[in-house]
Known about the structure:
Helix content: 10-25%
Shape: flat
Number of helices: 1
Strand content: 35-45%
Distance between the termini: 25 Å
Structural class: mainly beta
Number of strands: 4
Largest sheet: 4 strands, antiparallel
Radius of gyration: 15 Å
Amino acid sequence: MKVKDLINQLQKLDPNLQVLAACEDEGVVVQGYVVRPFEVTEVSSVSVEIDSDDEGRRTMCSVPVEDGQKFAVIEITSVF
């Protein structure tokens, strides 16, 4: 999703709502639950390198601007 698409979707909502991110992925959800909620803690623009580990899971690491691709990064936490 691009920033403009996210903004477009968020503009349809009550601007006073709190924002949560949710994930239903098996490797993220705690056993016995269907979904895991996360709170947004920060939004920034970061130069990153996207890769995959040996098991095919996506990974990223911050790199100098000339070595990476610029992404809008939404940082989340499960502790809130």
